[in-house]
Amino acid sequence: MALRREMSDLLAKGPPPLSPTGLNALRYELTNAIDDLRGNRILQEVIAIGASLHPRLVELALRGRGRWNGTGKWAPRLLGEIDTGLADRFDKAFQTLFTNGDVQLVIELVEAELAPHGGTLFGGDCRVASGSWRVI
Q1: Distance CA 58, CA 110 (A)
Q2: Counting C-beta atoms within 10 Å of the first and last residue's C-beta, which end of the chain has fewer, N or C?
């Protein structure tokens, strides 16, 4: 019983803040994705980019607001719990992207979610590979 209460309290407290490294990784990945969407793409590529972009943007939206991340069917539920307007913007933007390839609403949504975290990030992003990945 004590363990259950402790876990419940831990979950209610929320996740730790995103680390600067984790936040910058998200910023870079989202920036790269919307840059790809701005290119001249066929619908199949737009859908593939959008499919990979959605969970990362949900992660930024939730974690950036101090909430636990959720994927799959939990993503729209959790977005709706914190802000129904935000959930509606996600729904409309991605429905538009997936049904007719119109990328503008998704780009605007990504930029709006990135803005409180420093905006887009290309320049200055540096990731160091683990020493075990290096070939000498």
Answers
A1: 10
A2: C
CA angle 95, 102, 112 (to 5 degrees): 75
- Is pTM, for the whole model, over 0.70? yes
User: Measured between alpha carbons, how far is 27 from 117 in angstroms, rounded to an integer?
Assistant: 8
Q: What's the pLDDT score for residue 132?
A: 80
Residues 6+ apart with CB under 8 A from 67: 14, 15, 78, 82
CA-based nearest residue to 24, from 110, 129, 111, 114: 114
Which of 127, 97, 124, 123 lies closest to 110, judged by CA? 97
Give ∠ CA 52-28-135 in degrees, rounded to 5. 90
DSSP string of 38-52, one letter each residue: HS---HHHHHHHHHH
Burial 74-88 (b: 16+ CB within 10 A, else e): ebbebbeeeeeebbe
